[in-house]
Design brief:
Blueprint lengths: L3 H4 L26 E7 L3 H4 L3 H11 L4 E7 L3 H9 L18 E5 L6 H10 L15 E5 L15 E3 L3 H15 L5 H8 L5 E2 L4 E6 L2 E7 L8 E2 L27 E4 L1 E2 L9 H5 L4 E2 L2 H15 L3 E5 L9 H12 L5 E3 L10 H7 L7 E6 L3 H6 L6 H13 L4 E8 L6 H20 L8 E8 L16 H14 L5 E5 L2 H11 L6 H10 L12 H11 L4 H4 L14 E2 L4 H12 L17 H5 L19
Parallel strand pairs: 1-2, 1-3, 3-4, 4-5, 9-19, 10-13, 13-14, 15-16, 16-17, 17-18
Antiparallel strand pairs: 5-6, 7-8, 11-12
Helix pairs in contact: 3-6, 5-17, 6-7, 9-10, 10-11, 11-13, 13-14, 14-15, 17-18
Bound molecules: iron/sulfur cluster.
The site of iron/sulfur cluster (SF4) has 13 residues, from helix 21.
């Protein structure tokens, strides 16, 4: 990176930009046919905490004919220095400009990083719009959960990978090599659009009538009308990096991440991950213990985090935790479970975990009353929560975190009051069990509901910002005990998140305007600038309320309807209707398949260990 040495002493955290960590892969550029820059549109500390990066880095670098290097969004200070000295965006491994790569691959984990995507294209010296780029430029691709509504970024991205990337990325690289992709960009895009799970937005045309989407259609006959997500089969054997990169600077999740399962069977009606990562697939205990052994040996970390959407749902979690602790005892390695559901938590599990260091525990009841928990299909009761927290207090924890949402569909004042009552009950439980008042602490974290594509709540509007701000104030006032700590998420950020999450192609110009006005790192409270966002909407004539506050009818064509998760719309409508009458739908892990349609479509079924079986798969109900 020419000139970078002069600027590293002028920026915060230079370690973000130097590379050279343990276990990185540095290949000879001349020896490979395709070079991929993996771009994470947030800081190094956030990006390096993301397991998907390590997995795809491993998948691509395992190939002899390809290489992958990493690039992160430079923080504000670094961007300023880079722009002043005309230093282009560069990769960490070889410090080469991003424009020298064949493919620039973004992962889209969060809507509030979209202005960083645009900024990184600009810093790389690339034309922002896909239709302005030529054979001289890298192909710009994107994947991750936000690609399930790709439309707001469709002006900027050449193609999207929908679903799990392990296999489809390799297929894409094979095609690139076969077709000499860089020299045949247009042909490559057409051929790529035939790979299942690939969406090329320039090959689809959107028409509107009276401001509403009327159709989204392919412009060529041989292109699929809808793009169906990719799912990894035989998850137990899927490529897994047993030699992950170990950062030399502190990152957000600074520990081994061992992915124990993918997907979730619960069917919470607000949760996009629960819909897009179906079906649930678990890794076998034998695989997990073997992977853990290698990970500890190859990284030197003292903590393993068992990751999945809901770690305690793993069929034989207590057994696996015990086996891992036995295996790792001599190495002083602790285990943490970052995502716990209140009902599956057991005293036994709490005790197993605290055999070593005691990590923080977070429980997510999400809503303050039973009626609202049933509406969102959370499927847990107050008794479940109190049993779970009792187990935690009994096992020695004194500080717990509770996570709630406000603005959920059908919410009433009593649901808001319920958050305070429930939090107070948890605290009282701890005190009654002998936790000293000086040490007892319940952190109550409250965010705002954001309607997400492909969920039963995709048709629902977000609650008005003034209402959300009022409710946050109400909660702040009522949670006044010293041992109850209130954390809240800025509803103005949630509003932009809702606009982007339900956005269509027309929103791209507002994103670009927001970026050009200076929006960066919008998910960071110190960077978020609501005024600039409002100005961007004004200048582009976009009414953000029409995205965030719109209540869709079931017959309306949604901006993401041509992206198919495998979960049928009929099922989502039924789930929405059941939500409105606060009816719960059982978990398919418990043996009742509620017929979301996915297993029938993908000719698959959930992969569970520990002897549990799912009852016969139902067709779409
Ligand atoms: S089809 Fe049934 S078993 Fe399969 S993911 Fe959907 S609800 Fe679960």
């Amino acid at each position: 990176m020419p000139g970078a040495n002069y600027i590293l002493n002028r920026v915060q955290k230079p370690a973000r930009y130097v590379g050279g960590e343990w276990n990185i892969v540095r290949k000879n550029w001349e020896s490979v046919s395709v070079k991929v820059a993996f771009a994470f549109p947030d800081t190094y500390e956030v990006g390096m905490s993301y397991l998907g990066l390590q997995i795809l880095y491993y998948v691509v670098n395992s190939r002899r004919d390809a290489l992958m290097e990493r690039v992160f969004a430079p923080w504000i200070d670094m961007e300023k220095e880079m722009r002043e000295r005309r230093i282009p965006l560069f990769s960490l491994e070889s410090q080469k400009p991003v424009s020298d790569f064949d493919i620039l691959a973004f992962t889209l984990q969060y809507e509030m990083t979209f202005t960083n995507v645009i900024n990184m294209l600009d810093l790389a010296g690339l034309p922002l719009h896909a239709d302005q780029r030529t054979d001289k430029h890298p192909l710009v691709i994107a994947g991750g959960p936000c690609a399930f509504n790709p439309e707001p970024l469709s002006d900027f991205i050449d193609l999207f990978v929908i679903g799990e990337g392990e296999e489809v990325l390799s297929e894409l690289l094979d095609l690139w090599i076969d077709l000499e992709g860089k020299a045949n960009r247009e042909r490559f895009l057409v051929e790529a659009s035939r790979i299942p799970g690939i969406y090329v937005p320039s090959l689809y045309e959107v028409s509107y009538k009276d401001g509403k989407i009327q159709s989204t259609k392919p412009i060529l006959g041989e292109i699929p009308v809808a793009v169906t997500k990719r799912v990894v089969r035989n998850f137990d054997k899927v490529a897994f990096p047993d030699r992950p990169i170990v950062p030399t600077t502190e990152i957000i999740h600074d520990r081994i991440m061992l992915e124990i399962a993918r997907g979730c069977t619960r069917g919470c009606r607000f949760c996009q991950a629960g819909m897009i990562y179906r079906p649930v697939r678990e890794k076998s205990p034998v695989t997990l213990v073997s992977q853990a052994r290698k990970l500890v040996a190859n990284t030197g970390y003292g903590e393993i985090s068992l990751t999945s959407l809901s770690a305690s749902d793993y069929s034989c979690i207590t057994d696996v935790v015990r086996q891992l602790l036995d295996e790792l005892q001599g190495r002083k390695t602790s285990i943490s479970l970052p995502s716990l559901r209140v009902d599956a938590f057991s005293i036994e599990l709490a005790k197993e975990i605290q055999r070593t260091r005691r990590a923080g525990l977070t429980f997510a009841p999400e809503a303050g009353t039973q009626r609202l928990r049933d509406t969102i299909n959370k499927g847990v009761t107050e008794e479940d929560l109190l049993t779970a927290v009792s187990a935690a207090f009994d096992a020695g924890w004194s500080a717990l975190k509770l996570y709630f949402m406000i603005g959920l569909p059908t919410e009433k004042m009593e649901d808001i009051e319920g958050i305070t009552l429930l939090s107070r009950r948890v605290l009282e439980k701890g005190l009654s069990m002998g936790v000293s008042p000086g040490r007892a602490k319940v952190t109550v974290s409250v965010s705002s509901f954001v309607p997400k594509a492909h969920t039963p709540f995709q048709w629902e509007p977000q609650a008005a910002q003034d209402y959300l701000i009022d409710m946050q104030k109400t909660l702040k006032k009522s949670l006044k005990e010293k041992s109850l700590v209130f954390h809240w998420h800025d509803p103005r950020v949630s509003f932009i998140e809702a606009v982007v999450a339900r956005g269509d192609r027309r929103l791209g110009k507002a994103l670009e305007k927001a970026w050009s006005l200076g929006c960066r790192f919008d998910g960071w409270s110190e960077c978020f600038n609501n005024h600039l966002w409002q100005k961007a909407f004004e200048l582009t004539g976009i009414e953000p309320e029409s995205y965030a506050y719109k209540k869709y009818a079931y017959e309306d064509l949604l901006p993401w309807d041509h992206i198919h998760t495998g979960v049928s719309k009929k099922y989502l409508i039924r789930e929405h209707q059941r939500a409105m009458s606060a009816e719960v739908t059982p978990d398919c892990r418990a043996g009742n398949c509620p017929g979301c349609g996915l297993c029938a479509e993908f000719l698959t079924e959930p992969e569970l260990y520990g002897g549990r079986k799912i009852a016969e798969i139902q067709d779409v109900v």
